[in-house]
Design goal:
Distance between the termini: 46 Å
CATH class: Alpha Beta
Radius of gyration: 19 Å
CATH architecture: 3-Layer(aba) Sandwich
CATH topology: Glutaredoxin
Largest sheet: 5 strands, mixed
Order of helices and strands: HEEHEHEEH
Helix content: 40-55%
Number of helices: 4
Length: 130
């Protein structure tokens, strides 16, 4: 009986390690950047915002949240993309819906991907966590 418990604990520890490694591994970098990073202030984190003209959530929720966040916190870059015009970057970042936001560190590492609406509070906490 004790052997079974030890084996179960070892299996659970292995599963935990694999899950943790998968979720908290090294930050991903954008492989083939379409973004002109030279024009972005490299000392600041960046929010990439993906939208379309037909997206009502983009206009009614995400745009106001980003505007309010930018007014309160000037210490990040905001880059906006029409997802229909930027197919290469949307595929690379696995953007499935609009609105979507991607939070990059100062070193252009992907820290957070928010598919769907991301509130001002959520984005502020993600920026603060970098």
């Amino acid at each position: 009986m004790l052997e079974r418990i030890i084996i179960l604990v070892l299996i659970l520890a292995g599963v935990f390690f694999l899950i943790k490694k998968g979720f908290y591994g090294s930050p991903k970098r954008i492989k083939n950047p379409v973004i002109d990073f030279a024009s972005i202030n490299s000392g600041l984190p960046t929010i990439l915002y993906f939208w379309t003209e037909q997206c009502t959530q983009c206009v009614s929720l995400q745009n106001p949240a980003l505007s309010k966040l930018k007014k309160q916190n000037q210490f990040f870059n905001l880059v906006s993309y029409n997802a229909l015009n930027e197919v290469k970057i949307t595929k690379e970042l696995n953007i499935k819906t609009v609105p979507s936001t991607v939070v990059l560190s100062q070193k252009n590492e992907i820290k957070f991907v928010n598919n769907g609406f991301a509130s001002e509070k959520l984005l502020a906490s993600q920026l603060k966590g970098i």
